[in-house]
Amino acid sequence: MILAPNVLDFDLPETVSRITRFIKGYFDNSGADGLVLGLSGGVDSSVIAALSGISIGGNRVLGLLLPEDETYNAKDINDAKFVAKKFGLKTQLCDITPSLEGFYRSIPVFDPDDRLCKGNIKARTRMIYIYYYANKLNRIVCGSSDKSETMMGYFTKWGDVAADISPIMDLYKTQVRKVATHLGFPPELADKPATPALWPNQLAETELGIKYETLDLVLYGLEHFMSREEIASQLNIEASIVERVKSRWLSAEHKRRLPLTAKLEYRTIGADFRLPRERY
Amino acid sequence: MTKIKIALAQIEARRENKKENLRKIQQFTEKAHEQGANLVIFPELSLTGYVMGDQVYEMAETIPGPSSRIMQNLAKETGMHIIFGMPELSEKAKATIFNTAVLVGPRGIIGKYRKMYLPTHSVFEEKRYFRSGHQAAMFETPLGNIGLCICYDLFFPEVCRLERLKGAQLIVVISASPAVRRSYFEILIVARALENTAFLAYVNLAGIEEGLQFWGGSRVAGPNGDLITKAKYDSEDLVTCVIDFDDIKPAEASIPTLKDLRPELFAELEREAEQF
Fold first, then answer.
1. ipTM of this complex prediction, to 2 decimal places
2. B3-275 carries CATH number 3.20.20.80
3. Candidates A18, A20, A24, partner chain B, best to mutate (most B CBs within 10 A)
4. Does pTM surpass 0.90?
5. Which domains are present in chain A?
C-alpha cells in the first residue's frame, strides 16, 4: 500500500449521502422529536450540525452553545451561530461557568492547577447539559467525534464523546475538513485548528505532537495492518512517532468501550448479549 | 418454459417483525403477480430482517413451519414461485439455526438452500449464530432449473459453478449487503453470470438496520454478462424482466466456459485448499 495523501480521498457526495441516510434512519426509528448536539464552533461539530440539518431539517435540530469564562472565544460563538443559521438550526446558549464553579467548590480534593482533571469536568459538564436537553425534549444526542481523535483517545471519557449516535466517527479529521469544504464552509472554518476547549489556548495538534495530515496517514496505515517500520519509511518520519501513535491508540481502548464486566453468569452484559440497539 | 418473467422485490424488512414482513411480502407478491411475473424473489432474511443478534433464537422457525406455510399459501393463491430468506431452525435440535433461502411454488415447498459461506468478520457475525449449509442447491421447477445462493457465497465461484454444473439456468442470489460492499457485488454479479453462462438474479435488502445501510441495487445479469434490469439503490423497489433461457445457447457457444472446463484442476484445487 502506498501511504500517500490520496489514500484518504473518498466520494464526498456518496459519503454525505450515507451519513445523512444514517442519521435520518436512526431518527425515524427512534420516536424522538429531534436531535441535540453541542455546537462549539469547531469543524467537527459544525459538520455534524450541517449534516443533521440536511438529514431531518434544521428546525428539528438544537445546537447548544456551551461556553465558559476561561476558554470563552467570541470567534467560536460566531462560527457556531454562522453554521446554525446556514443550516436552519435552533440554538440555545448556556453559560456553564456557574456549574463548573459549583463543582470546583464542592470537590474536597479539587486542584485548580491540574488542568487535565479540571478540563475533564468541563467536557463532562457539557455532556450533562446536552443530555438534559435531550431528556427534557425527547431528543437524540448526535455526537461529533471524528476517527482521529477517537482512535487516539483524545477525548474525555463520558464527556465529549458521549452520544447516542456518532455519524462521523469513521472519518479522519482531514476527511471531516473535506466534508466541511464540500458543504460550503469557508476555509477559515473548514481548516480551523481543533481544540477541545478544556483550558485557554489549548490546541489539539500541539498536544498530540503531530499534524493531522501526518497523524491521519499513520492511523490509516495502522488501520490497514501496516508495520511501524513501513509507515515510518513511507511517511519519512521517525519510527518512534509511529510507535507513540500506535501505543496511544491501543492503550485507549478502555475509553471506547463499556466497562469490562466480570463474567459470572450464563449471559453477561458486554460479553454475551448481542441485542440490536434500535427497537421498532 | 423458455421465457419467464421474474420480479425482484427489494424490500426493507422490519427487524424482528415477521407479521409485518409477511404482510409486505404478500403486498409485493401481489404487485408482481399483477405485472405478470412467474417468479418473485425477496432478499436474504427478508422474513425477519438481517441484524437480529441474539433475537434470532426467538425468530427462527422450522421449514415447514408457520411462516413457510403462509408463503406456500401465497404461492398457491397467486400461482407464482416465490423465493425468500429466513432463519431456519433445525428440526432435530433446539438452537441450531441456518441462514436459509426457501423456494416455494403453487404446489408447495420445492426446496431450500442453507447458506454455506457465513461471513464472520467486520460487521458480520453469522458464524456466531448460524450453522453452515453443506449442499449446493439446484431445483428443477416448471419455470426452469433454479440454483440458490446467499450473499457472501457469491465471493466463492465454486458455489455458482457447482449449481451450474448441476444444471441451473438461473442462479438466484439473495442478499443483505451493506453499502461499503456495493462495488464488490456489482463486479461479482456480472462475473458469476458470465463465467457460468447462466442468468443470475441478485436481490438485496434496502433500508438501514443498526447503522448497516443496505444498498439495494438488485439486478439481473444475462449469460453474456449484460445487465437486463436493475432496481434503485438504497430504497425499496420492485422491478421485473423477462428472461429467455434460449439465450443461454448462443452465450455458451460464444464463450464456452463449460465446454472448456478442466475437471482435473478441481481435484488439485481441493488438495491445495486443504493444505493452504
1. 0.89
2. no
3. A18
4. yes
5. 9-195 (3.40.50.620)
